[in-house]
Amino acid sequence: MTLLRIDRGVDTGPVFGHYRCHYDERSESHIVIQHRTVFDNLDTLQKQLIDIYEGRAVPVDVTGRKSGAWVNLG
What we know:
The chain is of the alpha+beta class. Helices cover 31% and strands 9% of the residues.
């Protein structure tokens, strides 16, 4: 899971963290995995959200990373 600030682009806002959890992709749906990722990281997410709100959070440096932006071909 990526915590980022939403802006006008698609996944282009500043990134404030990446979070993981242990899961079994064979027996768990993507919804269960998404929920578990949030629940397993609640304490860290709470701290980071407070830091963002209070202006202490520093975005992850993504300089030089290639964009994977979606393109509308229609």
